[in-house]
Design goal:
Na+/H+ antiporter like fold, 312 residues, mainly alpha
């Protein structure tokens, strides 16, 4: 399978950091690229949602939410009993791996479009919805009777974080605007792949810089950071095929199941679980799982979905 050009930019970022190049992105540029991707994905999904909203979509939404609840429940015992991580650390990492990575999803969309593989255009709805269940499960796993968690502040972080506001807001605008969204298409659609390439260049450098953060848990977290995406990806592909999604749709659901959050969930978990070592979650999700999914996982999930879709 031919390497997609946007993935080549990610590899360039890794190589640049390995060579200790002084190349760096201003923080404001990274923030802009993140905002751009979230808005672009949300707008596209909102327009599609206006066309495809029906009872079948509601059934699919329920199934996807159940999938989001299952993933952290699968991850937690692996982290707690095999990895021997502390309870709070296990819950935090599990929440990250039950949630989704918008960056990984954007790469998967780019790969599918480059290979002309059709997919359900309303998928951004699932990206937004899958932010919440894993966080709730992660918190439930460490809930204590005398918890001092500020529920009001936690709720604000959960439902008003950057990713939730931007993607849900863009979904709503796209749903409301319909064809009027064409006026902003030159920015949010025509430039999407170029912006994604810049984002992946920065992510390549960031991922390479996280390798050293694994430290004493390197062996287990590296193994977990590959095994959990494979497990989540396989379950996502199976669920997508069972739901009757296209091969592209099953691939995207596999990608959502395989990805790990490194933007929305960290903000919530720092508030809810201050005692957890949040460096473990970021190191695993950004240093191991994101590179694995971008360079190996996404093509593998596509092949898996094609195999399942063929009825073999």
């Amino acid at each position: 399978m031919q390497l997609d050009i946007v993935i080549a930019f990610f590899i360039l970022g890794v190589v640049a950091r390995a060579l200790r190049s002084p190349l760096s992105f201003p923080p404001a540029l990274y923030q802009f690229l993140t905002i751009f991707l979230m808005l672009a994905i949300g707008l596209k999904g909102g327009v599609a949602l206006a066309t495809h909203a029906n009872p079948d979509l509601l059934k699919q939404t329920v199934a996807v939410l159940g999938f989001g609840l299952l993933l952290p429940l699968l991850a937690y015992p692996l982290l707690r009993h095999i990895g021997r991580l502390a309870r709070a650390d296990s819950a935090s990492v599990a929440a990250h791996y039950g949630s989704v990575s918008v960056g990984t999803y954007a790469v998967a969309v780019a790969v599918l479009e480059a290979q002309q593989v059709p997919y359900e255009p309303y998928f951004p709805l699932f990206v937004v919805l899958l932010e919440v269940p894993a966080i709730l499960v992660g918190l439930a796993l460490v809930q204590r009777k005398n918890s001092q968690t500020n529920l009001k502040k936690l709720g604000h972080e959960l439902f008003c974080n950057q990713g939730m506001v931007l993607m849900m807001g863009a979904l709503a605008i796209g749903y409301w605007a319909g064809d009027r969204v064409n006026s902003v298409t030159p920015l949010f659609q025509d430039l999407f792949h170029g912006m994604l390439a810049l984002f992946l260049l920065e992510m390549g450098m960031s991922a390479a810089s996280r390798f050293g953060d694994l430290k004493k848990n390197a062996t287990f977290l590296s193994t977990f950071g590959v095994f959990m995406p494979l497990l989540g990806g396989a379950l996502g592909a199976l669920l997508g095929t069972w739901m009757g999604l296209t091969i592209g749709g099953a691939t995207l659901l596999a990608v959502l199941g395989a990805s790990a959050s490194y933007i929305a969930v960290p903000a919530v978990m720092r508030q809810a679980l201050p005692e957890a070592n949040h460096g473990l979650s970021i190191a695993a999700s950004l240093g191991i799982t994101f590179p694995f999914n971008v360079m190996v996982g996404i093509p593998l999930y596509l092949l898996m979905s094609q195999w399942l879709g063929s009825g073999v």
